[in-house]
Write a structure and sequence with these properties.
10 helices; 74% helix; 0% strand; single chain; mainly alpha
């Protein structure tokens, strides 16, 4: 039995310009098959924004990369209060590297389907994936593959995903990530988390060190405190920059939707104007015909009036003659 979730997964994986026609065709097909319940739901599936469509493409074709970023985001959230500054910086470098890779892949996938992503749209794509790193609800929305609009976040925290997914609980997409047993270079996330664990173990093993070691440890601690303060300041700056970037991306998405709506309304007005032009031409033709007939009728009336006057004069002469003869 066909479900609205399965139909959504099918439609949101198509090239963007095919979405509306495919949605209409699928609706008609479901009606012919007698599945009127789902057929009534399909027309309500919104066409995705360009950025959301690009993210849906990534989830289908670059799932590994998306999952790496989502898992890295979870590691960063957990590591905020436990990892040392250098280890956190390493994870942040990995985050930036993966976001850059996401942008490159999104642009390549879109161009393969005939869609060019502007820098603004590319920023929305990266902001959406960054939101998936920051919040599990946003991660679930991105993983659905039926995202309708881009997401944004000002840092690690809740993300507003209301209305961002076409169908809640859509059919799951295949997960193509490599198995854990695969060999290969470890990510910065793995090395950073393991490095933090090693550092904590080393700290525990040095509990009984002498006073010289204690002074050295105290110096290291003060250095780490200074680095932690610098890191906190840098994080605040980063959060503010991401907040402004997310706001700009959201404004661009809103403007894009407004342009789409106005384009559609303008096209509808143009179609209506064309119909009215045809109707006006038909009325003009009818008016020309009536004008010609009116001219003919007026001429007939004039001739009839002349004939009536002539007949009246003849009758008057005949009466006068009769009267003369009767006298």
């Amino acid at each position: 039995m066909t479900t609205i979730g399965a139909v959504a997964v099918e439609l949101y994986g198509l090239p963007l310009e095919q979405f509306t026609a495919a949605r209409d065709a699928r609706t008609k097909e479901l009606r012919r098959e007698g599945d009127r319940t789902v057929a009534a739901q399909v027309p309500r599936l919104p066409k995705p924004s360009v950025a959301a469509w690009a993210v849906d493409l990534l989830v289908r074709h670059e799932r590994d990369l998306v999952e790496q970023l989502v898992e890295l985001g979870a590691a960063l959230r957990e590591a905020q209060g436990t990892l040392a500054g250098e280890q956190l910086r390493e994870l942040d470098r990995e985050r930036r590297r993966l976001l850059t890779a996401i942008g490159q892949q999104a642009r390549a996938l879109a161009e393969a389907q005939g869609q060019r992503l502007s820098d603004s749209v590319l920023g929305q794509v990266q902001a959406t994936v960054h939101a998936a790193m920051a919040d599990p609800a946003a991660a679930a929305a991105v993983r659905s593959g039926v995202l309708t609009t881009s997401l944004e976040t000002s840092g690690f925290g809740p993300v507003d995903v209301d209305g961002a997914v076409a169908v809640i609980g859509a059919a799951p997409l295949p997960h193509t990530r490599r198995a854990a047993a695969d060999t290969g270079p470890r990510s910065a996330e793995d090395s950073g988390v393991d490095g933090a664990r090693d550092a904590r173990n080393e700290g525990a093993s040095g509990t009984g060190a002498g006073r010289a070691e204690q002074r050295e440890e105290e110096g290291r601690r003060r250095q780490e405190e200074r680095r932690a303060a610098e890191l906190a300041e840098a994080r605040a700056d980063l959060a503010e920059a991401e907040r402004l970037d997310g706001r700009a991306a959201g404004q661009a998405a809103t403007a894009h939707r407004a342009v789409q709506e106005l384009d559609e309304r303008r096209a509808a007005l143009a179609e209506r104007a064309e119909r009215l032009r045809h109707e006006l031409q038909a009325l003009q033709d009818e008016d020309d015909e009536l004008a010609a007939r009116l001219t003919e009728a007026r001429e007939a009336l004039r001739q009839a009036a002349n004939a009536s006057r002539s007949a009246g004069r003849a009758a008057e002469h005949a009466r006068a003659r009769v009267e003369r003869l009767e006298r």
